[in-house]
C-alpha cells in the first residue's frame, strides 16, 4: 500500500476549519494578528504562503499549535510510507475517498470499510481478491463513504453491515438490517480477534471509527496532519477534537491511522505534527 497520497488538507484548509469551528471571520483574525484580511483570504484559497511568524500568530488566535501550523504552511511534513499486513487500500473513483479491506486467512475472512464509488470497480476488486466478506463497516453517512452499500449488499448478502444508529438512515432500506454497534462494543473476527467500534462524533453525529489489531480506520475524524470538518446536526468541532484526544490519543503510539482521505499516519506522528493538538 504505497504512501504516495498527498495530505488531505492544505494550510488554508486547516485555517478554514479552525475558523469555522471557533466562529472566527477573516476580519476578526486580521484585527487580532495585524495580518491584512485580504492576505488571509488568499491563504484560504491556497494562494501564497504564510511565514512562520504569521502562521504562529494565526495559531494563537485559533487555539492551534503554532509550530505545527508553521510546518503546514511551509509544507515541511508528510508521513513516511506506512504499510500494514492484511490491509489493502483502494481509491473510490469518482469519490475522493479511501476504502479499505482488512483480512485474515488470506482473505477467507474479510471486512470492507466504507463501500463507495463506482460499484463495478469495487466489486471487481473484491472478486479479484477472492475476499469473503464478514462485515461491511461504514464510518459515517456521507455519500463518498457509503454510496455503493446497496450493490455490495446484493453481491455479498451474508456480510453484516455495521453503522452507528445516528447515521444509518443514509443507506435507506438496508438500515433495518444494519447492526447498530455502540461505542466500545466489539465484533468477533477470526478465532482470537475482535473489531472495536469507537463512536467519534463531530464530522457527523454518528461518525465512527474501527480498530483492529493496531489499525485504526478513522473515517473523516482524523487525517494525517488535520481533522475532518464539523458537519454534525448536534455534534460540534469541539466533539471532533475531544474524540481524537480522548479516544485516539489514548491508543498506543504505534497505532496506524487509516483515514477516509489522504495518506496513513500513526498516533505518535499525529501527536507530533497535527496542528489541532
Short key terms for the protein model shown above:
single chain, alpha+beta, 434 Repressor (Amino-terminal Domain), Metallo-beta-lactamase, Chain A, 6-stranded mixed sheet, 5-stranded mixed sheet, 13 strands
Describe the protein's architecture and organization.
- There is one protein chain.
- This protein has about 280 residues and is of the alpha+beta class.
- The chain has 2 domains: about 10-75, 434 Repressor (Amino-terminal Domain), CATH 1.10.260; about 85-275, Metallo-beta-lactamase, Chain A (4-Layer Sandwich).
- The chain has helices at about 10-20, 25-35, 35-45, 50-60, 65-75, 120-130, 145, 150-155, 235-250, 265-275, and strands spanning about 85-90, 100-105, 110-115, 135, 160, 185-190, 195-200, 210, 215-220, 220-225, 225, 255-260, 265.
- It has a 6-stranded mixed beta sheet with strand order 6-7-8-9-12-13. Strands 1-2-3-4-5 form a 5-stranded mixed beta sheet, covered by helices on one side. A two-stranded antiparallel ribbon has the order 10-11.
- Helix 2 packs across helix 3 and helix 4 crosses helix 5.
- The longest helix has 12 residues, at about 10-20.
